[in-house]
Here is the input.
Amino acid sequence: MFEKILIANRGEIALRVLRACRELGIHTVAVHSTADADAMHVKLADESVCIGPPPAKDSYLNVASIVSACEITGAEAVHPGYGFLSENARFAEILKEHDIKFIGPSAENIRTMGDKIEAKRTAKALGIPVVPGSEGGVADIAEARRAAKSIGYPVIIKATAGGGGRGMKVARNEDDLEIAMATAQTEAKAAFGNGEVYIEKYLEKPRHIEIQVLGDGQGNAVHLGERDCSLQRRHQKIWEEAHSPALNAHQRDEIGARVAKAMRELSYEGVGTIEFLYENDEFYFIEMNTRLQVEHPVTEAITGLDLVQEQIRVASGAKLAMTQEDIQFSGHAIECRINAENPATFAPSPGRVDSVHFPGGLGVRVDSALYSGYRIPPYYDSLIGKLIVFGKTRAECMMRLRRSLSEFVVDGVETTIPLFQNLLLENDIIDGHYDIHWLEKYLERNTP
Here is the structure.
């Protein structure tokens, strides 16, 4: 086991990793920008190193500074959390060159699954069902027309290096295609430095279902069930639950077994998530995230496993301590992402937190690095906390969520807590009848 781990992240995920390390008896190193000097993970870590000014490119994305911090402190491994450098294959390679362990999959797996076209090819070869689409990138409108005609309208144009909904446009007919493709290419180039796009069949009312996997890099892998992440705004998840209200145990076991088999064939190491669109009882692979997910706590709630500790164990060279038969699912869990944003306009709301009160009680967990007097910086993602509730049934979980949201208080900045309180009044949410477009339509109807 490692003696010292550097946490190359900030906010609630840095604190989450720190806690896992503490419970394993591992010393921690926090890195931070000057804007995060008073952050909770910095206060609680055994050591801390300032790695640059507020802009992420000069601090949390500064590979040289992070490697230097490892060498200064003697950290043997780096946990990247999510975002920032967590899916950067070159970062994993550089750490390896300096004899520092990257807590995550191999650079090869990151690179393969990070390219959406190559990931789709790989998934198909591994027996994972994929969305009908172009075999690779489409270079011009003539090629796009041929691909779209073969697939059938409507189609969606996506950036090959995409993420977060950028570089994605829908074309419902040939007249829409040219402007949709040009817009997607422009957005992709601006956001990712790569304007390549590909085309897929556009599903009208799918759900977003993802399968959590865990492998040890030694040929062993298991799946940890699914999460339903269909409530999204601009392709950004805001609510995740496990299990999905749309699946039964047979469907879960079948797709989970396929995915776990694929991870064994890849000799995948660490945690990862295979994401699908699900419509008319069919699964369609869209991408793989080769890292810890924001929504990992709902899986922890229904399995009783600590996914961060499992990441650390397999990174240290240990084999999986469980088989698929050992994984037992229990109850229902829901996570709400609490952002420092106006709940109607979603405008960011950085600033000083005058006071904060987290809900508690049986089955309630809050992952957050907030404290009274903390100043939320304007430079980073607006996620300030995650409320995770667990119940024996979905109905019990929903009642517990209502109660917990009523107790959750953050004074001094605006948050999205009122949005979730309003969503819990909707019959579609209560009954679990929603798809990936539901929230956008709801907001159109209810935003002044």
About this structure: The chain has 15 helices and 20 strands.
